[in-house]
Amino acid sequence: MKRFLIALVAVSAALLIYWLASPKQLMASASAESFDAFVPALMEEEAIPGLAIAVVRDHQVVHMQGYGFADVASRKPMTADTPMNIASISKPILGIILLQLHDKGLLDLDRDINAFLPFRVNNPHADGLPITIRQLATHTSGIADYYDTADYQKGADSPTPLVEHLRALLSPEGARYKSGAYYLNAAPGASREYSNLGAGVAGAVAENAGGAPLSVLAKANVFEPLGMTNTSWVLADYPAGKLATRYDVSQCLPFTGLCASTEDPKRNFLIRKVFRPSAADRSFSAYPHFGNPNYPDGGVNASARDLALLAQSILAGGKTGSGRLLSPASFNEMLKLQLPPSIDDRQRFFWRDRNGLTGHAGSDQGVFTSFYFDMKKGNAIIVLMNRTPDLQTEEAMARLNKRASRDLLRM
């Protein structure tokens, strides 16, 4: 026992000496006096390659700026006009398209979705009860979540048609059905569980009802009316080098060669939290751009400036330069709380409340995004980050939003 204690003390002393001797990232963001000093300091601390931020106060843009790099290797700066994948912020844009189709009399929000699909969607655990568009838009459909980057097409839009991707997972005739593994053991409407796959089904419904691909419907009815010139659901719309490069970050213990990235979350968190590696002990790894066969759930690429235009339209009741995105009734439908409080008290039509605001966040390999607004005050904050999120960057995103609210939204 005595030898063990001596060894333990020796190891502890060695670790302490290592901790004291190893170079550490300086933490300067907390003492930054201005927002424009705070952002670069936070990026340096949390190894964020690039950020684009747009802030709307009382319906007017008061801050629009890029920080860091859209591409680290070429030192291409991130700007407010740099498009990047916005991940799940795509879902409420899909919601707008569904409600536009409802305005045209092409969709009943409470009708069985099987009327709009070339294959049947039936939950084997729910006695064939119908699933509705409203349930898809509130994550109460009983369709389970599904996310697998193995389905992604590197560097191009996915060649797999959306309906074939969905059929394979949700139809008994599908090659990946697995006895209904992608359905919950819950009746439609009974409980809320976030579902990327359900959003894919909603996109297929929109394409069938609208008679065109989702990318075409969005461009004609949302992006062009709002002047969102850098926004598309299709990778092929962007020339090489136009989109911000997507990154993961590896951080290493100095002098050891022991490294971790977000693919090893526990070790990654421990290294960052305890040892705070400096920039010299961190490196960026670029991902390719991806085409996802389930693209309705997160396939949109957009710039911060374009998303500010969307935010301003929403804050103005859905107005565009020459009309409205939605009828007043459908606009109210989009933003009303959709579910009984016993199921969920924050869910709207694909939008969701957080910390007193309404909006959506997004994350995927190499991207982390946030879009939140306050209808009563006419305020919005949009943050786009070309880095895979982890616990530390989630905290950084929260700090960015808090600091933007303090510095840029105060009256």
Characteristic key phrases:
411 residues, 14 strands, alpha+beta, globular, seven-stranded antiparallel beta sheet, 17% strand, Beta-lactamase
What's a quick, concise take on this entry?
With 411 residues, the chain is an alpha+beta fold.
Description:
The protein has 411 residues and is of the alpha+beta class. It has a domain at 84-240 and 290-350: DD-peptidase/beta-lactamase superfamily (Beta-lactamase, 3-Layer(aba) Sandwich). Helices cover 33% and strands 17% of the residues. The protein is built from eleven helices and 14 strands. The strands form four sheets. The protein has a seven-stranded antiparallel beta sheet, sandwiched between helices. It has a three-stranded antiparallel beta sheet with strand order 7-6-8, covered by helices on one side. A two-stranded antiparallel sheet has the order 4-10. The longest helix is centred in the first third of the chain and has 20 residues, at 2-21. The radius of gyration is 23 Å and the shape is globular. The protein starts with a helix and ends with a helix. 45% of the residues are buried. The mean pLDDT is 92.
Whole-number average pLDDT? 92
Structural class of the secondary structure composition? alpha+beta
At CATH level 2, the architecture of the domain at 84-240 and 290-350 is 3-Layer(aba) Sandwich
Query: Quick one: how many beta strands?
Result: 14
Helix content: 25-40%
Strand order of the largest sheet: 3-2-1-14-13-12-11
Q: Give the C-alpha Rg.
A: 23 Å
The helix count comes to: 11
Strand fraction equals 15-25%
CATH class of the domain at 84-240 and 290-350: Alpha Beta
How far the N terminus sits from the C terminus, by CA atoms, comes to: 65 Å
Low-confidence stretches: none
N-to-C SSE string, H for helix and E for strand: HHEEEEHHEHHHEEHEEEHHEEEEH
Oligomer: single chain
The gross shape turns out to be globular
Do you know the CATH topology of the domain at 84-240 and 290-350? Answer: Beta-lactamase
The major beta sheet can be summarized as: 7 strands, antiparallel
Question: Would you identify the CATH H-level superfamily of the domain at 84-240 and 290-350?
Answer: DD-peptidase/beta-lactamase superfamily
